[in-house]
Write a structure and sequence with these properties.
With 357 residues, this protein is an alpha+beta fold. The protein has helices at 14-30, 36-42, 49-61, 78-88, 96-107, 113-128, 181-195, 200-209, 218-231, 256-268, 270-280, 329-355; strands at 65-66, 75-76, 131-136, 144-153, 156-163, 168-174, 238-242, 287-290, 302-311, 314-324. Strand 9 and strand 10 form a beta hairpin.
Length: 357
């Protein structure tokens, strides 16, 4: 969970640590600079305001606190949050009511990966009160079992793709022309026969390289067109997110420029996908990226708490919470850790269930 910077926690005496933790806790709650009298009054440290004030001055010199020029109080720096994460936050535990809520919601999902990702991101956002992000697994190494095409209207169809692992996904496709239900069923039969048993990487190559002969009949032409549309998104990384609007309630993002920057990050998705992809190849367990540790300037007022989810020993994707730097890591770290392990178990259970049906 540690960041890239090396901090010698032993350099902080017990008294100084207590003051630092108190300032961090208070600032997390209030988002206002913290003064020595405030700490003395609200935290039973057994220290006078003068002693606390001296400790805060020492912490400022060491880079753990900063002193806004318009206030007599101090606020934590990224170095202080790193201390909090590495020393304090790892001792937190997932609350039983929240754990049971997550279990119930995930148990209600079918074998559709998209539904599982959407449910998970929504629940993670609701429980954290911040933005939840999930990088869904690309299916390039997964093999196709079958494809179904279900008419919705004359110019639209629902494509349902089932994999040999038992996981599935669905998309609504816009058709270039009206297609009869019987034609859709026949096209689905043709595509299942043509591509069943192949990995999506192999399907991609075949679909991309396939040329449509000029003398092809209507069904063959429709099958080729629908194959390109149906499979085109399955080898890309897909980002699910919920609760981005929750961030705008935080005072850090009350100013219009900060608000625009964070909303643009979620709208464009590229930076979030790159950030989560880097977490997938990083250290095991929960990873926390704080403020200035973010590789993108637009996200320097935020932190990311992320963990990979797996199928067996293979990392499939990453999920996490994006919030302000002062987020309560002692709550968010165990929440993200538990959710990642629950998603891993759910994917394994879906695979086993489908394997025996």
């Amino acid at each position: 969970m540690r960041g890239d910077t090396s901090v010698l926690w032993g350099d902080l005496g017990e008294r100084t640590r207590q003051v630092l933790q108190a300032v961090i806790f208070e600032y997390i709650v209030t988002a206002e600079p913290v003064g020595s009298r405030q700490v003395a009054r609200k935290y039973a440290l057994g220290l006078s305001p003068a002693t606390i004030r001296n400790a805060m001055a020492d912490l400022e010199e060491m880079g753990y606190l900063t002193h806004p020029h318009t206030s007599a109080g101090r606020v934590p720096t990224d170095k202080a949050y790193r201390f909090y994460v590495d020393v304090v936050a790892g001792t937190g535990q997932m609350g039983r009511p929240d754990a049971l809520r997550l279990q119930r919601q995930m148990a209600s999902t079918r074998s559709d990966i998209d539904q599982l990702m959407e449910t998970t991101s929504a629940q993670l956002a609701a429980l954290s009160h911040y933005a939840a992000v999930i990088l869904a697994p690309p299916l390039r190494q997964t093999r196709l079992d079958r494809i179904d095409l279900i008419p919705i209207a004359g110019d639209r169809a629902l494509v349902v793709i089932a994999t040999e692992t038992g996981w599935g996904t669905s998309r609504i496709l816009a058709l270039d022309e009206a297609v009869k239900p019987a034609e859709l069923r026949e096209i689905a039969r043709v595509l299942s026969g043509r591509y069943g048993g192949l990995s999506f990487q192999e399907i991609r190559t075949r679909v991309t390289d396939a040329a449509i002969p000029a003398d092809s009949d209507r069904l063959e032409r429709l099958a080729a067109t629908l194959a390109r549309k149906a499979f085109s998104s399955l080898w890309d990384k897909n980002l699910f997110y919920s609760g981005a609007i929750e961030l705008l309630d935080q005072p850090e993002f009350a100013q219009i420029p900060a608000m625009k920057a964070i909303l643009r990050t979620f709208e464009e998705k590229r930076q979030l996908i790159e950030l989560l992809t880097a977490r997938a190849s990083g250290a095991a367990g929960v990873q926390v990226v704080i403020g200035s540790e973010m590789p993108y300037q637009e996200m320097h007022e935020t932190s990311l708490v992320a963990a990979a989810y797996k199928f067996g020993d293979q990392v499939l994707g990453v999920l996490g919470v994006v919030g302000p730097r002062r987020m309560p890591y002692a709550k968010i770290v165990p929440l993200v850790d538990y959710t990642a392990r629950l998603v891993s178990r759910r994917l394994t259970r879906l695979h086993r269930t489908e394997s025996y049906t």
